[in-house]
Amino acid sequence: MPDSHSPTTAALPTKIDTSVAHEARVYDYWLGGRDNYPADRALGDAIATHIPAIRTMARANRAFLGRAVDYLTSEAGITQFLDIGTGIPTAGNTHEVAQRLNPAARVVYVDNDPIVLAHARALMSSKPQGKTTFIHADLHDPTGILHDQTLATTLDLDQPVAIMLVAIMMYFRDEDDPHDIIKNLLDVVPSGSYLVITHPTADFDEHAMSRVVDSAEQAGITFHPRSRAETEVLFAGTDLIAPGVVPVVTWRPAPDENPADPESAWYWAGIGRKP
Description:
It is a single chain. The chain is of the alpha/beta class. The protein has a domain at 64-203 and 225-273: Vaccinia Virus protein VP39 (Rossmann fold, 3-Layer(aba) Sandwich), CATH 3.40.50.150. The chain is built from eleven helices and eight strands. It has helices spanning 23-30, 38-50, 54-74, 94-101, 114-118, 120-123, 142-146, 149-154, 178-187, 206-218, 228-233, and strands at residues 80-84, 106-111, 131-136, 162-166, 194-200, 239-240, 246-247, 267-273. Strands 1, 2, 3, 4, 5, 6, 7 and 8 form an eight-stranded mixed sheet that branches. It is globular, with a radius of gyration of 17 Å.
């Protein structure tokens, strides 16, 4: 996940600084992981005072990733994934879901947190028929990602690729030109590729989300929620797959997952197909 200083790939730190919060480690804390530090937990708890259900929302976002990869692999026939903003490995990583359905699936993970780099071996526990690799890079520098030799040797960019941007675009302000970043990614993949996005929103509780933004910014982390319309614009250049951009818990839930409250998790979610 990118940080507020927008480092280039070459300048990314490889030493873990536990004195400041990092997005990936805060998310790990909410998911019940162990790879987080006091600064991460302090920010996670501060946000939880404004959104008490934040841990449930984080799990709902993670569950969507599993459903999205399931759909892409089993229904759309996708065998290649570029997962940017990977986060710290936990149960149900992209390659685990994809390779359960198609052992030949290939996945490139990308994250800028050195702690994710330290856990990269867990992300590369591929089935023998497939392949998984990791790039320590930042989405603020999409060219660096796309020109990385690891990507070139893992994915065939002449064949469709699913670009996974799950809970990452909120770390980009409008002046960072997130639309151009996404366009750069889409431009290098062929027709039939897919774009997956989830995005936090203030649509369901503007006051609480504004407090979250304040807490994140005080910790040095850019946090920019977007409306449904603003999230839909991020899918420019693709055709949205039904049901479109919807609350994350309502995107094709399993029969036993139908939510009592569609707005129980404050994320928009969608999948688009490049025509």
